[in-house]
Automatic annotation (TrEMBL):
This is Uncharacterized protein. Keywords: Membrane, Transmembrane, Transmembrane helix. The chain crosses the membrane at residues 7-30, 45-66, 75-94, 106-131. It comes from Marine Group I thaumarchaeote.
Amino acid sequence: MKMQYGAYIAMAGIGLYAMFVGEIISVFYFMSDQTFATFEPESKILQFISIGAAPGLVMSGTSYMLARKFGSKQIGWLVIAGGIVLLVGMSYAYTILDSIDKDYQVFTVIITPPLFIVVSIPVMIVGALLFRIKKRPKKYF
């Protein structure tokens, strides 16, 4: 079965979500163990959002836009998988929040996991919208 361009774009979105989750979890662990140097978590978290989560959302949206006219179960499942990666990863990151040093528990750090848990739900809904398959019009010429 030949894959559509939207499927490759959706796979890139999954990769970007996984990268973002890995970055957030690793920086949260760093902040929970870190006691010897100064560290600005706001700028690092915003950097991770701009290089991981934001492009991942763009990839999911692009996949949806490419496949929305006729629907695609394959692309729908890939977009839903990206939402699940984001949901599970941010749920785990949320459990690490209590172990982070109080000096680093700033607004950006505290809001990131719940914000992206909420963002993952519409991503999965958009993927589910692609399950509506419509018949392609016949082209005679």
